[in-house]
Amino acid sequence: MTLLNFEIFNMVVRCQSFQKAAEHLNLTPSAVSHAITKFETEIGLKLFVRHRSGVELTDAGYILLPYIRTVINDVAQLEQVVSRIKGLETGCVKVGMFNSVCVNWIPNIIKGYANAHPNIDIQIFQGGYEDVAAWIENATIDMGFVSLSSDYPFEIQPLYRDPLVCIVPKGFQCKSPGIVTIEDLKEQYLVHQSEGNDAETSNYLKCHDVSVSAPFQIEDDQSLLAIVESGLGICLVPELVIKNGNHNVDAYPISPEAYRVIGLAARDEKSLSPVARSFYDFVLQYMKAEGIYNV
């Protein structure tokens, strides 16, 4: 087993294709296929199932994946330490996040960090809550922004308390001026995202016995707001979702109130690489300096 075997294996998993992995690694598809076959023979396990549309991991491959990624990350960490000793600072930080964090915070965070650390690359992985949690668990990313609305088996640093608000079309009349109640919600056509992207809203609706009446399967924030803007229903979202947006809707606080807590998570904060640790610390400093940190 060699580091190159591990890197080829990891790239094939990411691309789900020998052809695409070869392009990323500047190798021929036959070289990638040969390396995987040799790796499988060496360890005596089948790692991929090949089919016309690409490849997928076997059960054995899924079990080995986080260990292989840990080795790759450990070697990268070693290289970063060597660079530091030599007076250089290089490397890559992989960060996962959901949409509202990506839109509102990440551009300025990356800009500020890049000014201080111009030789460090930042790779962004965007998805829903469950995506980010899975990427942390299998070591695809170094760290990720998550909502504490679900239980996770890794360390989380709370950063931001984000209240839920009700988004309504222009001209909507609340029964109680300036606030949306549970009674309002039960009388309206209510839409929301899939639970994997909207755990805190789902929990709130279940807790107060409010059913979702609209037949929409929505995956992203902007589509949800567009549906409300068109007058097809109302929705509950964390307030951060509507900041820096341009949809023609109104937002009202809800009663009883609820919120999500956004945190920065790592599988093991203490074992972060030097560059990942520097980014982690920079995020905390940025949130406090900008007055965003509120927990």
UniProtKB/TrEMBL annotation:
Domain HTH lysR-type: 1-58
CDD domains: PBP2_LTTR_substrate (cd05466)
Record key words, sorted: DNA-binding, Transcription, Transcription regulation
Keyword Disulfide bond: no
One Pfam family hit: LysR_substrate
Superkingdom of origin organism: Bacteria
Similarity comment: family membership: Belongs to the LysR transcriptional regulatory family.
Name of the protein: LysR family transcriptional regulator
